Amino acid sequence: MPKMKTRSGAKKRFQVKKSGAVKFGKANARHLFTHGKTPKGKRTQRGTGHLKDMDAKKVVKELFPFGAN
Predict the structure, then answer these.
(1) Global pTM value
(2) Cα–Cα distance between 2 and 53 in angstroms, integer?
(3) pLDDT tens digits for range 28-55
């Protein structure tokens, strides 16, 4: 039986908290803030967010086969 592999891309993108919530970094906030983005858009892309419960279950079950961490 071959070894199961963790999804190394998921390890880099998600962090599972003790409460079971899945934390992620927001997209589209890397560069080009001088034009093309409204101030509201810049504010909402700041920092991190948490996945909804339904999506968090999928991420933990499918992308972390050995558990959260």
Answers:
(1) 0.75
(2) 31
(3) 877 777 788 888 888 888 899 999 999 9
